[in-house]
Design brief:
- The chain contains six helices and no strands.
- The chain has 117 residues and is mainly alpha-helical.
- The chain is globular.
């Protein structure tokens, strides 16, 4: 039970940061999306984000910062395995399942529901 609370708190704090940026700055949601993905990538590259993932699990991997982390971690892993070609393949391998799920569920939602407007 304590694990679920920890995941909720860490993920919630990341989301609160995004909400505060929307409320207190002139940044658009698109700017914040890019900022969070880049921030997750930078923190991953510096070795700071992986300990947060180990500590909070899905609370750190589900928000947008987790996507940036997955891209950089996958790239670094493939660079270690296959060298320079890992720059091109690592991020794709690390994020393919999540991207494919988003595309599939987005397509299904478009088929099933009629948007207003």
């Amino acid at each position: 039970m304590q694990e679920y609370i920890l995941v909720f708190v860490v993920g919630g704090l990341i989301c609160v940061g995004g909400q505060l940026l929307m409320d207190l700055t002139s940044l658009t949601p698109a700017h914040i999306l890019v900022l969070f993905v880049v921030l997750g990538g930078i923190l991953s590259g510096l070795g700071v984000y992986q300990p947060l993932v180990e500590f909070a699990g899905a609370g750190a991997t589900i928000p947008l910062t987790g996507f940036g982390h997955a891209l950089v971690a996958g790239t670094m892993e493939d660079i270690d395995k296959i060298g320079l070609m890992g720059v091109f393949s690592g991020a794709l391998k690390a994020s393919a399942a999540g991207v494919m799920a988003a595309v599939t569920f987005g397509f299904l939602a478009a088929l099933l529901f009629n948007p207003k407007g």
